[in-house]
Amino acid sequence: MASVSVDRVWKYYGSTAAVKELALEVADGEFVAVLGPSGCGKSSTLRMLAGLEHISAGEIRFGSKRVNDLPPRDRDIAMVFENYALYPHKTVFDNMANPLKLRGVERSVIEDRVKKAAAILEIGHLLERRPGELSGGQKQRTAIGRAIVREPALFLFDEPIAHLDAKLRAHMRGELKLMQRKLGTTMIYVTHDQMEALSMADRIAVMNDGVLQQVGTPQQIYNHPVNAWVAGFVGEPPINFLDGHLAEVGGRLHFTHGSFQLPLMPEQEEIVRSGYRGDKVRMGVRPDQVTITTEPRSGAFQGRILVTEPIGGDMLVDVSLGGDKVLVKTSPDFEGAMDQPCYLTLDRGRWHLFGNDDGVALF
Ligand code: ADP
Fold this sequence. Notes:
CATH 2.40.50.140
């Protein structure tokens, strides 16, 4: 088992910086997802951890041991990529056994480890099949099994289930999480899919443009994004942003939008007064933190229903609010219809305010 320290690490390709001063601590046995859009530097980070890519500056340590110059085979890691390559002519058993055979591990130990890994992944009944006789999910499990049998100190997974269909992906999320918890092996898991990160990881490291934006538990990332970018990237359907400004009304600060004014709560007001100099701000509120009714309510803002979309157990309602569009997630019983007025209230204390210039969260 291993803890991992990424200490002010840079990765340059020529003059392009793909990873900029990344600092990340992963505890022994922890499952950390590295989340961000394509091109943000996730794979470069993972490849530096694996020893497949030179580290331009900074230091990576496993435990207290500096590994910058250690070749991949000496790092005690196992990787799984999106494009796993199984040997087509070998059985599932032999595919999984291969890394151990190459290391000259004893036959009885190999058998024991392959059977244990196959049991965890529920592919024990497929050990004699060849890859051509497996479904996409079974092939991926075989590739993961090949990583498990190594009993490494660290798993490095790079979008391992990205190519599977949506239903299987959802299923594999649960399985991978369970597998990691059972084995207790430290896991660094790269994905662009926020659902994977939110549902599986102990903590998420969110990256954008080579820069680490925030590290935190899924709840921290979702409920307390450090900036508008993280707030916008994490959450499905995405958070609503409304531009406005701060105005003092009757001695209290209000978020003022073209179509409504919302008083800040005393603790929110204190944060803003002590730390923010501008008056332009951006509000963020998640679709499920807005309450919508067809009847007026005290303190509610009036909008107009653009369209309603029933999505099984929920209903999405697009609302026009003073020229902006706000998406609301409500119950499928909502009875509003297109072009009718509707009334919105925001869940107390669940909305966010970001600085207009740098997008940094005030609360
Ligand atoms: P991600 O995994 O988040 O999609 P990558 O780490 O693959 O991002 O890439 C980060 C940036 O580095 C991208 O702009 C990409 O084009 C660039 N990059 C990645 N690998 C190389 C390489 N071998 N040579 C040059 N540029 C690269």
